[in-house]
Amino acid sequence: MPAVAPGWSGTAQVRRSYAALVEHYTAMTADYGRFPGLRQELTDFLTALGPGPVLDFGCGAGRDADLVAGTGRAVVLADVTPELLRATTVRIAIDAAVCCDALALPLRSDTFAGVIASGVLLHLPRRYTVTALDNIRRVLLPGGKALISMKHGGRDGWRSTDDFPAPRWFTYYAPEEFAALCRKVGLRVAQLDVSSRKDWFTATTEHPEL
């Protein structure tokens, strides 16, 4: 795994927080029991993809990568926390894993039929979101799609919870505000859904055909 490239300085704290709670976080998120409707959302997304591999961008404990691998598609993991990547690659069979910053994605352009970015870009302050979205657009094949999960309705800043008692940065967007940033980098927003899962929403985006 290559070294994490420099990006936002707060990424180091986010990485430390996840590294400190790998086993706890894996137990929380390794299946879909706590996330009603998410499995179906991902299944529908994968069904709509053309041929090609999928990138699980900010893969966490690998729940979504495991689902992708179960469909027979090649899947690549990317996450900023090496401890999570090591734990995940022991648990599930994947094709490749890369430890990287969301702002410096060391993968070839025009590579993936799909990108899953579930709850990862929300850990970046607003001024960095466009760069991360542009990375997603760049690695997608023309016609490729990305499913991006974000949160709405909160106050930006560092927070910890009873479920995750270590500080993580959260940035919240109104769904249409986030959709406008996707369009700014050249991603077409095919669908924008406010989830029944508390304060989550998903943007299904597409890299337009050339």
Structure write-up:
There is one protein chain. The strands form 2 sheets. This protein has a 7-stranded mixed sheet, with helices on both faces. It is built from 7 helices and 9 strands, in the order αααβαβαββαβββαββ. It has helices at residues 11-20, 22-29, 38-47, 63-70, 82-91, 126-139, 175-184, and strands at residues 54-57, 75-79, 96-99, 112-118, 140-151, 157-159, 168-170, 188-194, 200-206. β2, α5 and β3 (96-99) form a beta-alpha-beta unit.
Largest sheet: 7 strands, mixed
- N-C termini distance: 32 Å
Number of strands: 9
- Radius of gyration, taken over Cα atoms and rounded to an integer in Å: 16 Å
Assembly state: single chain
* CATH class category: Alpha Beta
Q: What overall form do the CA principal axes indicate?
A: globular
For CATH, the homologous superfamily is named as Vaccinia Virus protein VP39
Global structural class? alpha/beta
Count every helix, treating DSSP H or I runs of 4 or more residues as helices: 7
Order of helices and strands: HHHEHEHEEHEEEHEE
Order of strands across the widest beta sheet?
Answer: 3-2-1-4-5-9-8
Please outline what is shown here:
By secondary structure, the protein is an alpha/beta fold. It has one domain: Rossmann fold (3-Layer(aba) Sandwich).
Write the layout of secondary structure elements.
Blueprint: H1 11-20, H2 22-29, H3 38-47, E1 54-57, H4 63-70, E2 75-79, H5 82-91, E3 96-99, E4 112-118, H6 126-139, E5 140-151, E6 157-159, E7 168-170, H7 175-184, E8 188-194, E9 200-206
Parallel strand pairs: 1-2, 1-4, 2-3, 4-5
Antiparallel strand pairs: 5-9, 6-7, 8-9
